[in-house]
Amino acid sequence: MRSRRRLLPRIPKSDRLHGIMSGQARDPLAIGLRLVTNLGTPPYRLATGVRNTLYNLGVMPSKPLGRPTISVGNITAGGTGKTPMVIELVRRLQAMGHQPAVLMRGYEPAGLESKKGSDEAAVLRGSLGGDVPVMANPSRIDGARDVLADRPEVSVFVLDDGFQHRRAHRDLNLVLVDASVPFGFGRVLPRGLLREPIGNLKRADQVIVTRADRVDPDELAELDQRIERLTGRPPLAHARHHWANMRQGYKDLPVEYLANKTVLGCSGVGNPSDFEKSMREVAGKCVGHIVFEDHRNYNRTDISGVFHTAEERGADAVIITEKDWVKWRKKAGGVKSTLPIFRPVVQMQFIDGGEAVDHAIAEAAGSPEPQPTERET
After folding, report:
1. Is there a single domain that holds both residue 207 and residue 281?
2. Does the annotation list 83 as a binding residue?
């Protein structure tokens, strides 16, 4: 009988990576990797520093997109919650009477109606529906132009992952800081998770702390104080990732449906540890969590292995993320298993500061009536 490879790691990959970056892992491989990645940090810092200096001096100017623009970004690599935050802000803008559009990085040759593209684009389209254009383009400038050519009624743009994309002018620069891993172990890529030096957080107009429920009050207060020292103001709001309901295919079910289920989790996201914590909180029993790299391009062997592990461990169901489902849905049908697949619908829920967020985005977005671009006047 052909042996199957073991998919369930003893240590989640994210925990292993964090152990290496934080310095907690002391084995020879971890020490060696820290030495190697230390060599890559100075060139990365230099490149980002030169680029930011050129923007700060106006040598590389930012260009307006033709509509008021709100940017949602972060200063660290990994999952801080940008996608659910973008969804929440879009819905709040819609409630104010705006017709928002989302601009994100990526490439989609078929334009607005493309079914291809990034996992995040597919999640955004599935959550926001056809009324909200979601444009993926390496250039947010070109993406905005294409959206307005097709949907001139758009009144405001929301940039997904826009903090480092300084070429696009923004009227509100929001940065998300994950309370569970706030500053990427204090080191710039590749040694740590910071996408640029921590002092650059001062470019943010406002900071929102996500996963604020995952740390104790004293730790959160200390984080708030550090953000205030870096930016000159305390965080605008604190938020948490809330599992609103579960989805099986196109059917929505209450989260409580899992209370008596034995489940196996599988994820390929930026912060798998938080996914696992939430899964263990809602499921009757969790028999493991298979962790793949972020943006994993799953194949049938991966999916078959997940189902095999789940069945071997006596699971009633498999839980994956909405982002992973984008890759799974076309391939899972070819895998023989009777186990159902559930995925959480994650909402960004403000613990405090929701009204302040509304005020900030309303001030940045202005009137819901779209203003004509230069080409329209």
Report:
1. no
2. yes
